[in-house]
Amino acid sequence: MTVLFVAVFTPHSTNVAQSRGFQKAGCGVYEYDYRDRASKIGTQNMEDDLINTCSKLKPDFVVFSKCNNMHYRVVDECNKYSKTVLWYMDAMNNFDQELIEKIKRVDWFINGIEGVVPHGKEYNPNTIFLPQCPDEEMNFPLENIQYKYDATFIGNIQPNNTHADRMHYHKEVGFNHFNNAHGLEHNKIVNASKINLNFAHTSTNGASVRVFKILAAKSFLLTTPWEGMEDMFTIGEHLDIFTTPKELKDKINYYINNEAERLQICNNGHKLVQKYMPVKWAQEIIRYVKQSI
Predict the structure, then answer these.
(1) In the 8-state DSSP scheme, what is residue 112?
(2) How far is CA 125 from CA 22, 107, 108, 152, 281, in A?
(3) Terminal-residue alpha carbon distance, the chain
(4) 78 contact partners, CB below 8 Å, separation of at least 6
(5) Predicted local distance difference test score (pLDDT) of residue 86
(6) In 3-state terms, what secondary structure has residue 50?
(7) On the CB side of 293, how many CA atoms lie within 13 Å of its CA?
């Protein structure tokens, strides 16, 4: 099968690993970096160019990775030549009318955040949940690394609707915080931390790709829970949870002092996350596309 992958292919973009996943799944992949192209020729010209590219390639399917600021007319035109998929990995804070118009038009609307699915189904019955995937070339165990940190969170802690609880936890618990750490630098910090933290979306239930990156690095994860997490993970076997600052403090202390148990959970989580790697992600999308051909 051939896929026209309309996405962003900067070095730290998750789309890079996803494209590799399609290739490993046996697809011929044509990468179209819509954001880079728009910066060079303008948005409308980029849209015309993309439509022309699709008409010439006639791929088996087109995957639009969110593609914010792209007009839905592109989907309408690509539907004439190929099956279409819209991949959306954000919480509800970016679920806007522009996105809705594209959701209505694609053959499949696929979400990386489970709580978005009911909202997508309001506009497209072919709305499904597909867990986000880590990057095996960016998220992996490092050998002979020395621990530098007891507990670490990598990400935004500014107070807003999506991350409202993070600053409160940071003030109460005082864990290490890093922002704007990406790629191999992100992986280095994760590996150097005895405990890595995650805060599930407060606006919509679901797991951030951060969860999968940490587990892929064979590192220990403490996270706030989200609805449906036990369908994917066993608490206390693959990861552990906290729901209050006090519980987080207590569990940080417990797992620092119980290294064997912590490392066993790391191993279990790493084994489990192998089924969420990019090639598995790509194979699931291919399976759904084939159903509609």
Answers:
(1) S
(2) 24, 9, 8, 40, 20
(3) 12
(4) 4, 50, 51, 54, 62, 84
(5) 98
(6) helix
(7) 14
Task: Count the Cβ atoms, other than its own, within 10 Å of residue 41.
Answer: 12
Give the pair of three-digit tokens for residue 170: 């940071």
Number of alpha carbons in the 13 Å side-chain half-sphere of residue 25: 22
Q: How far apart are CA 2 and CA 83, in angstroms?
A: 11
Q: Residue 41 in contact with residue 52, Cβ under 8 Å?
A: no
* Cβ contact 178:284 at 8 Å: no
Tokens of 10: 């900067």
- Give the pLDDT band (50/70/90) at residue 204: low
| 202 neighbors 162 (Cβ within 8 angstroms) | yes
Q: How far apart are CA 158 and CA 170, in angstroms?
A: 11
- Specify the pTM: 0.93
Give, as one character, the DSSP assignment of residue 161. S
Residue 127 bridge partners (DSSP):
109
Alpha-carbon distances of 198 from 72, 207, 239, rounded to whole Å:
34, 9, 11
- Torsion of the alpha carbons at 273, 274, 280 and 282, rounded to the nearest 10: 70
d(CA 163, CA 165): 6
Please state, as a whole number, how many other Cβ atoms lie within 10 Å of the Cβ of residue 247: 13
Q: Is the pLDDT of residue 31 over 80?
A: yes
- What pLDDT digit, counting tens, does each position of 179-199 carry? 989 999 999 999 999 999 999
The answer to whether the Cα torsion of 46, 51, 56, 59 is positive or negative is: positive
**Segment 114-136, tens digit of pLDDT:** 989 999 999 999 999 999 999 99
Q: Are 9 and 33 in contact (CB under 8 A)?
A: yes
Angle value at C-alpha 205, between 223 and 103, nearest 5 degrees:
140
Asked whether the beta carbons of 286 and 1 are under 8 A apart, the reply is yes
